[in-house]
Amino acid sequence: MLYPVPAVMISCADEEGRSNIMTAAWAGTICSDPVMVSVSIRPERYSHDVIARTGEFVINLTTEDLTYAADFCGVRSGRDVDKFEYLQLTKLPSAKVKAPSIGESPVCLECLVTGIEHLGTHDLFLARVVQVSVDEKYLDEKGRFVLEDAGLVAYVHGSYLSLGEKLGTFGFSVRKKDGGNRRRAAVRSAESAAGRKKPSSGRAADRKDTRRKKNSK
Amino acid sequence: MLYPVPAVMISCADEEGRSNIMTAAWAGTICSDPVMVSVSIRPERYSHDVIARTGEFVINLTTEDLTYAADFCGVRSGRDVDKFEYLQLTKLPSAKVKAPSIGESPVCLECLVTGIEHLGTHDLFLARVVQVSVDEKYLDEKGRFVLEDAGLVAYVHGSYLSLGEKLGTFGFSVRKKDGGNRRRAAVRSAESAAGRKKPSSGRAADRKDTRRKKNSK
Question: What integer best gives the mean pLDDT of chain A?
Fold first, then answer.
């Protein structure tokens, strides 16, 4: 229920150099210094044991062009198919880990596992990012990284969605230039939403019913 | 560098019932049974100690209408301003925790902290979701949840972005109906991308240069 999330492709390689790609929606940054990420993986997945044994993986961001590949890598197992070959993806050697990177991905994060938490259906892998590789076509003429133009894909409740228009940049609400007008619009919107709803408690189902009655009055 | 991420509003309340909202981009699902989430929070943030002491918080999803509020809650401290009041957001009592929910949010996840990992600049809060409340306007006539129409907001490298068109649904790549044609398109796209790039290794800067030379040939 926590959305949107990224749908990243996780690449790994076993001790004999056999590589695989799995897609994970439950991945995110967890610390900025040291730079750390986490990825939740079910123990049944083929990549789980490879990553647990080797302690290495690469997170490859997914673009619209890679949506088919990302979906395929999320539903098919590396036990049955060589995904790099089937999907004709470019297997790039990584700089700091033996797991390969995906050449078509705009950003590849090379990771070393620092710990695994056994939570239940999923194991949470905590990892340090030891290398970040960025495709230069996402750097502007001043060398700034323009990732919002990369066509990244978001995953929401079973659907892959493109990203749309820019709504603002971090800190816009307190910048003198446009903060004031936008606050008035936001407050009007909040007031209007509040008028349609009432506080309620109880189970989600109860609450849902309460709101439905409110709305159908 | 791991994007897109959600920009969720985390609400909490201290022992005297004083509530606050902070925005976090580093939050995600980590387990499906038990349902668990994680949120990374800097120890300096006002909400950090409140959540660490009370062991409770609510994750409120952010829509386009809530972008201003989400940004404001990410840059201003609860030490200085009552954010519910300033932003005129509806403070709903939650069902299972003392932390309030935000009435304008389409989905509110009530959470109980199960552990805190001290990573460096950030502490990783692991938590169980004990209640999910969904605004009924995101349920279709069959009671199915249609969250991709809620106008959720993604955060990418400093920018808030709306979500765009649907590119596919989970499993589309292996469904007989459209998998084949889409694979051909995806493979053509991969081949075309591979032709523009060469495997390389070394630091990100080196690799960037390599690619730039390739592209400028």
Answer: 87
In a domain, B212, yes or no: no
ipTM of the complex: 0.86
Same domain, A25 and A57: yes
Q: What is the CATH number of the domain that holds B86?
A: 2.30.110.10
A28:B37 CB<8 A: no
Question: Whole-model pTM?
Answer: 0.87
Nearest CB to A95: which of B168, B174, B202? B202
Q: Is residue A50 part of a domain?
A: yes
pLDDT in tens, B74-111: 999 999 999 999 999 999 999 999 999 999 999 999 99
**Which residue among B6, B132, B166 places its CB closest to the CB of A3?**
B6
Determine, for residues B166 and A171 on separate chains, whether the beta-carbon distance falls below 8 Å.
no
Expressed as residue numbers, the domain containing B173 is 168-195
Based on the fold, state whether residues B31 and B70 are members of the same structural domain: yes
Residue B80, classed as helix, strand or coil, is coil
Question: Cβ of B154 and A163 within 8 Å?
Answer: yes
The enclosing H or E element of A54 equals helix A46-54
Same-domain check for residues B107 and B145: yes
Residue B208 lies in a domain: no
Q: Clarify whether residues A78 and A158 are in a common domain.
A: yes
Angle at A130 between CA A127 and CA A133, to 5 degrees: 120
B contacts of A200 (beta carbons < 8 Å): 92-93
* B181 and B109 fall within a common domain: no
Pick from A73, A25, A155: which is nearest to B169 by CA? A155
Q: What integer pLDDT is reported at residue B204 of this predicted model?
A: 39
**Given an 8 Å threshold on Cβ–Cβ distance, is B204 in contact with A135?**
no
In a domain, A167, yes or no: no
Q: Are residues B106 and B176 in the same domain?
A: no
Residue B132 has what pLDDT?
Answer: 95
pLDDT digits (tens, 9 = 90+) for A156-181: 999 999 999 999 999 999 987 766 66
| CA dist A187 → A170, A190, B10, B69 (Å) | 19, 5, 19, 9
In sign, the C-alpha dihedral spanning B131, B135, B138, B139 is: positive
Number of structural domains (chain B) is: 2
> How does B10-49 read in b/e, with b if 16+ C-beta sit within 10 Å?
bbbbbeeeebbbbbbbbbbbbbeeebbbbbbbbeebbbbe
